[in-house]
Write a structure and sequence with these properties.
By secondary structure, the protein is of the alpha+beta class. The protein has helices spanning about 1-20, 25-30, 45-50, 85-95, 125-140, 170-175, 190-195, 205-210, 230-240, 245-260, 285-295, 310-315, 375-395, and strands at about 65, 95-105, 105-110, 120-125, 265, 280, 300, 305, 320, 325-330, 335, 340-345, 350-355, 360-365. The strands form 3 sheets. It has an 8-stranded antiparallel sheet with strand order 3-2-14-13-12-11-10-9, with helices on both faces. The chain has a 4-stranded antiparallel sheet with strand order 1-5-6-4. A hairpin with a 2-residue loop joins strand 7 (about 300) and strand 8. Helix 2 (about 25-30) runs antiparallel to helix 3.
């Protein structure tokens, strides 16, 4: 009997030690294991656990590594911002897991929440769209893409004869193809949810197969309509044009030479293609570095990786969105002349203000995809303006508000 009790006690102790040794991230995931194949329909607790673990869940999705280089670009500390509100309270209210504010290239604020750390990797969601767009610019400069006026089907042969056959690369970048698409994050029958479940029967890659079957709603170039599917096509276009995976090309052009602190990862489709409209897992500091890279005209060693006029076009309004004062460039949201942002659902973002040399990078786990359930989206816009006003106050200037997000 004593031996049995000792044996059971040993097993319990071993289990407790093992439970402790797997670490807080795995413990959080183990107690909040996602039960739905789509992240859009995870519970709040599952998102809290899963968004930091996506590239450690091969039973859920495959990933590809975006390799960093041997040298890390330092981020120097600056003076803390003098704010007239409690930024820590704001971060907790918004369920931000991280917040980094760079001003003139220096860290003016950095904080972490909900157990996330400076070396953790949180998912980007649609922030990846702006990174994908930058790779298009690189591919143009490198000569892989001849012109933005080229038809998409020149690079993705599986789209020939489809509604995308006469859509240009630029129209794909500005989401003005005119092809039908539904992006409702609460509807499992929306295109944004259905395309991942599609099984190709025509020999095409799954995404190309799905997109090639969509009908046309408007003539190309006439109407802006938000479509993650089109950014996913952009990723395939870049891979086809360059002959490289997106992860490889991103590492080669930006991640390694610019000096990101650590490897990142990119989620893959069932076909092994990067899901370019979503989901790069990276440290928040590296998302901030990407914002600084864009602010510095995408230059590495004094030379821009994109054409001279690329960023001026990419980060200014190319098409109206129907939202007051908010435009859309090449996969960037634009706010007036100087401000633009990479935005992802559930509160991911990189906000950039050229005139003020300001970058705000944040990762989050909002209570709803668009932040409309508890007002997080509007509060974030106000937060950006609060930081702008604080910077202007330091400089003895009066802030000019940008348009509403």
């Amino acid at each position: 009997m004593n031996k049995l009790l000792i044996g059971l006690g040993t097993l319990v102790l071993a289990g407790l030690i093992g439970w402790w040794m797997i670490g807080p991230d795995w413990r959080r995931l183990a107690t909040n294991m996602p039960t739905h194949p789509s992240m859009l329909f995870w519970s709040l607790e599952q998102r809290d656990a899963g968004f930091r673990m996506l590239d450690r869940m091969p039973f859920f999705v495959d990933t590809r590594t975006i390799k960093s280089g041997k040298t890390v670009r330092p981020l120097e500390d600056g003076e803390p911002l003098n704010l007239d509100f409690d930024i820590d309270a704001y971060i907790k209210e918004q369920r931000h897991v991280s917040m980094i504010i760079l001003h003139n290239g220096k860290i003016r604020h950095e904080s972490y929440n909900l157990g996330f750390t400076d070396h953790g990797r949180w998912t980007s969601h649609s922030v990846a769209k702006s990174i994908t767009s930058t790779l298009v610019g690189a591919a143009v400069k490198d000569g892989y893409i001849e012109s933005l006026n080229d038809p998409v089907s020149k690079y993705i042969s599986g789209l020939k004869g489809s509604s995308y056959d006469d859509v240009t690369v630029e129209q794909l970048l500005t989401m003005s193809s005119g092809v039908a698409w539904t992006e409702d994050y609460d509807d499992p029958e929306s295109d944004i949810a259905r395309f991942a479940r599609h099984e190709a029967e025509d020999g095409l890659p799954t995404l190309v197969s799905y997109m090639s079957q969509l009908p046309r709603e408007h003539a190309p170039g006439e109407v802006w309509h938000y479509s993650t599917g089109e950014t996913n096509l952009i990723g395939i276009l870049v891979s086809e044009a360059t002959g490289k995976t997106l992860s490889e090309y991103l590492s080669e052009k930006i991640w390694a030479p610019y000096g990101m602190q650590q490897d990142a990862t990119w989620l893959l489709s069932a076909d092994g293609e990067e899901i370019s409209g979503c989901c790069i897992q990276a440290a928040t500091r590296d998302f901030a570095r990407f914002g600084q890279f864009i602010l510095e005209n995408a230059e590495i060693d004094g030379e821009s990786i994109v054409p001279d006029d690329w960023l001026a076009s990419a980060t200014s309004q190319r098409v109206p969105t129907g939202y007051a004062g908010v435009g859309y460039g090449y996969q960037w949201w634009t706010y007036g002349e100087n401000a633009f942002a990479a935005i992802g659902i559930f509160g991911q973002g990189i906000y950039i203000d050229r005139a003020r040399q300001l970058v705000i990078a944040s990762n989050s786990s909002w209570t709803s995809a668009l932040g409309d359930q508890d007002g997080e989206n509007m509060r974030r816009y106000q937060f950006y303006q609060d930081i702008v006003q604080a910077i202007d106050k330091e400089n003895g200037e009066t802030a000019q508000p940008t348009s509403e997000e």
